[in-house]
Amino acid sequence: QVQLVESGGGSVQAGGSLRLSCAASAKMFGVAGMGWYRQAPGKGRELVAHITRNGTTSYADSVKGRFTISRDNAKNTIDLQMNSLKPEDTADYFCYSGPYYYPDYWGRGTQVTVSS
Q: Of 69, 99, 102, 113, which has the fewest CB atoms closer than 10 Å, so is most exposed?
């Protein structure tokens, strides 16, 4: 069964850091690009970061220089290191697998809250 399971969300003050992880089934991890979207209350889903199976990364302008996406092929995980967090980063964060423009699979999401 194909699964994506996120972990690492929580609450933090502005300027703090959080690290999100997404564990994927081996079949999915080996062939797909992966990444993170987020959805803030009352807003649409926004692409945050993407990493190809070869490790090429891309980021939304709003998080460049603050967030880093990485993948661990041995553990079948991708991580999102989030530094210098801002209140506007508050959202539900969703891991996905597949093309960034039309993902094939989604995790259930993990909540990130940044207080000022």
A: 102
Summarize the confidence of residues 62-69 as an average pLDDT. Answer: 98
In sign, the C-alpha dihedral spanning 45, 5, 51, 62 is: positive
CB within 8 Å of 97: residues ≥ 6 apart: 2, 4, 24, 28, 29, 32, 33, 34, 103, 104, 105
**Which one-letter DSSP state was computed for residue 26?**
H
Rounded distance between C-alpha atoms, residue 3 and residue 96, angstroms: 10
Is the per-residue pLDDT at 62 higher than 90? yes
The amino acid occupying position 99 is: P
